[in-house]
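dude i think i finally got it to work??
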Amino acid sequence: MRRLLTFGIGLVYLSLCAAQVFLARDIHEQGRIMRRWAARILKAAGIPWTARGLEHLEGLPPCIIVSNHLSSVDIPFLFAVLPRTFRMVAKAELKRVPLIGWVLRWGRFVTVHRHEHHKAMREMEGVEWLFSHGADLYMAAEGTRSRDGRMLPFKKGPFVLSIQHGVPILPVTLAGTDRVMPRKTLSPRAGVPMACVIHPPVRPDGYAYADRDAYRDRVRAIVASGLEAPLNPMAEGAEDAGAASGPATTG
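look at this
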């Protein structure tokens, strides 16, 4: 019953978020709205979380945020954690989903047809608009969610874009989101902790297109390093400088 109620609340919050995004004046106001509603959704679901490495965001120009991908809750978690305006690369099929598709179109999210290369390349032209307006791009470099929690190989796309546009990569490690919202579930599990580590940005200086594999492998190793030790949002020291925590109860 609790999870069914959480699902209903999530739909209401998503609807209110979509309405406010429609009325927003610019992409940064839209970003503030999305961050606020994402935090409310996590609080209503009773999900405790922690984020470390926020100090690495200071003075960071527009960038490409790259993380591992475990769960449907990854995106609202990142919106709640990162005090930046960013848009994600989403599957074009999501445009057909009620509410979600509307937000993707109006909010200038980048959607791609994954199995149609030429069409995907044209759609990615919207990335330059984001960077020129001071916004970031989020890409799940594995291309799909991990089925067992282990990281999949990273795709080359984020690193090619980083080299082409001269913007840094911001590596982020996510942990526990697959336990909060396992595959084939419609609502998150209350009280299950999740966490992320924000690593120092990696700049494309010195990398050419021919070096894209080495660039990709370097960033993947950084993201993987965040999984070497358990990430517990309730652990001692969560309130240290550069760390932030979310609610452990519904409040």
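Residues 232-242 have pLDDT under 50 and may be disordered.
im so relieved honestly
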